[in-house]
Amino acid sequence: MSGRGLAGCLTAVVVVLGVIGSIVTFFLSTEGYLPGDAMVRTWATAKERSGDGEENGRWVVGDVAVRSRFDAVTGFGMADGHDGEKLWEFVPPGRTQICGSARRADASVLLVAYGTERRETAYSNGKPVVPGRNEGCSTVLALDVKDGRELWTAPRTVSDGLFPGGGFLDAGGGLALVLHERTRQELRAPGGNRSLRAVDLRTGKARWTAAVPGACGVWQAAVGEEQVHALLACGGDDADGTGTGTGGTGTGTGTGTGTGSTGGGDAELMAAAFDRATGALKWNVPIDARRPVALDSTVVIESADPLVLRVKRTSTEGAGVYVPFGPDGKARPVIEFTGDDDKIEPADRTQTAFAGDRMYALVWHWYKGRNSRLVAFDLKTGEQEWSRKLDEPAAGLDVRGDRITVLCEWSTQSSDITDLYVYDADDGEELDERHFRDPAPGPYFFEHDGRIIVAGADGDRAFTAFERW
């Protein structure tokens, strides 16, 4: 064979080997077997039985991961040597059940509430009998997340014995916020609106009772860094009706819940702010300056810093919107989440995140499958700051400092998380791409000491930890 022919053969062999090497490298990378590209599982909590009740939320606080379910609140260790080991568990007494929790565990203290729901209404002379204070979601409990110690308990006023939606507990900056229901006697009494109360988060000592306008009922409340925000129903006979909107599983921010009512009358939903130190009313403004937002609309406090409401009227007309507010109560331009093409899943808190004056969202549209984009919105103007097309369907995101972490699925037919991407929060530049060797169980996740802690579905493992490899 001539030298030229031998060189040609060698070149062909090199090309074939290069192609084979590229294919092998691609396979190892996408399957999580290539160093520098992989996410590998480091530990997982024990697999649990399925429950027949609702979950209230999940949190990662310090070196403890916490899961609150109807039957128990459980803390799992994440420090070296624990690796998902169950550290403590609180089980509500008797036949009571966990019926709510704060969105976040502030200063290593988690607020939960428990009680017994009244499922049947007794009637007397054709009128419903108001149940006693021992029924309904009537006890608030503060737990030390580090060891599960019960720091304090306090009674919570209930009116009808039914479990409320979310938004009646919150914590922040050492303040615990508890929303009480007004009894019928308090509704009739002058100055009887004492429904929004704040206590010291660690001791339970009373701090203040909010100056809620007498014609208004409090439907949701959230603690911000500068102000306490609330959603009020004002005017009409139904202003004190209990919200019946549906909630979504928490991911470190507790349960997200809408409002609703079978009535409405002349009442409308309003946004309000109270002084953190005294509970004095600072402002109370309509959500929509042009058209009242009726009580049968779905309205949720999405963020307290700054205040952002998610609003969807029951009418089929018009798009659902996010409504940001300035610190003075002035509404800013809205951001649509149900446009003609692009959409945001509004009830799923894994799809949005708020940091400073920006909102980050996973936006999608359907064209031969689910196509996703990561978008940054300016909350002052409502305009897009930047947008990045994602190669795979996005499942959830989290903002931490100046970085955005996004978990993606391999296809719209797969519910397992297979890929992780990291983007610069300032301009959306891609900073990292990783592939899970073992598929993660779902889109709810936290970041802890460089690891990704993924929350599993009911009946699965409560938490699974992955690290970069």
Give the class from helix and strand content and strand pairing: mainly beta
Strand content: 35-45%
Major beta sheet summary: 8 strands, mixed
Give the total of beta strands: 36
Could you report the average pLDDT, rounded to the nearest whole number?
A: 83
List the helices and strands and how they pair.
Blueprint: H1 3-30, E1 38-44, E2 55-61, E3 64-69, E4 72-77, E5 86-90, E6 97-101, E7 109-116, E8 123-124, E9 127-128, E10 136-144, E11 150-155, E12 169-172, E13 175-179, H2 184-188, E14 196-200, E15 206-209, E16 216-223, E17 227-234, E18 247-248, E19 256-257, E20 268-275, E21 281-286, E22 298-304, E23 307-312, E24 321-324, E25 335-336, E26 352-355, E27 358-366, E28 370-378, E29 384-389, E30 394-400, E31 403-409, E32 417-424, E33 430-440, E34 445-448, E35 451-455, E36 463-468
What does this structure look like?
The chain is mostly beta strands and 469 residues long. It is built from two helices and 36 strands. It has helices spanning 3-30, 184-188, and strands at residues 38-44, 55-61, 64-69, 72-77, 86-90, 97-101, 109-116, 123-124, 127-128, 136-144, 150-155, 169-172, 175-179, 196-200, 206-209, 216-223, 227-234, 247-248, 256-257, 268-275, 281-286, 298-304, 307-312, 321-324, 335-336, 352-355, 358-366, 370-378, 384-389, 394-400, 403-409, 417-424, 430-440, 445-448, 451-455, 463-468. It has an eight-stranded mixed sheet, with no helix packed on it. A four-stranded antiparallel sheet has the order 2-3-4-5, with no helix packed on it. A hairpin with a 2-residue loop joins strand 34 (445-448) and strand 35. It is globular. The two termini are 47 Å apart. 45% of the residues are buried. Mean pLDDT is 83; it is low at 242-264.
